[in-house]
Amino acid sequence: MVWKKLNEEFIKKIDNQHIKSILKSILEKKEFFFSLERRGEKTNLLKTVLINLGHNLGYKVYANGLNKKDLENIKIAEFVNREYLCDLVWYTEPDRTDYITTSLKLAMECEWDYNRKEDKNKNNYSAMKYDFQKLVVIKTEFRLMIFKLKSSYNDDLGELKEYFDKALQSFKNLDKNFNLLVIGVVSNKKNNEFMVLNYHNYNIK
Q: Which of 40, 85, 95, 173 is the most exposed place for a label (fewest CB within 10 A)?
């Protein structure tokens, strides 16, 4: 498994329809995404895309931080504009719920900072790694981690791949056939890209 650029050719090779739909919906907004300057706008664009996709696939959705303008693009009565477990989740529940969740389909975390202020050791990409732990331990079918790569990202890809592998292999309660998408956002003077790692049906060796 290696990092790949997110493009139509990459998506065509994916068999799982949910993974294909998630990546396709993000790729369709690529040009608009990179035209936005504020990271909050970028986050809310990704959330809006995934909220609408989740509902179209038949799931209910929690996601936080959306403003009035964002909500105009989410014309779904059941949408809940607050955080539940992660930055965004797709879930199912009975028609009449008494605080009962029957399943989680997708959990997403999105992080633009490189380092946590609390990290005294200055661990590389510590802000992303801190949030990534939620996706390792959460019980859901699909997981999506989106974060910003540094300008010199080519030097970091190998180290990050080793980190993700180690984090998954170290967790003793990891689900079998674990599904995880990692998207590293590249934005510099030379190019704007989404770099992807696809841990599909992953199992600890």
A: 95
* β-bridge pairing 142-148 and 178-187: parallel
Q: Cβ distance 185 to 154 under 8 Å?
A: no
Residues 6+ away with beta carbon under 8 Å from 68: none
Mind listing the pLDDT tens digit for each residue in 149-199? 987 778 899 999 999 999 999 999 888 888 999 999 998 878 899 999 999
Alpha carbon separation from 96 to 13, 82, 186 (Å, rounded): 39, 20, 43
Q: Edge-to-edge strands of the sheet including 103-111?
A: 4-5, 192-202, 178-187, 142-148, 103-111, 88-92, 60-63
Give dist(CA 172, CA 29) in Å, integer: 37
Whether the predicted pLDDT of 77 surpasses 70: no
Residues making up the chain, counted from first to last:
205
Global pTM reads 0.91
Residue 99 has which token pair?
């605080």
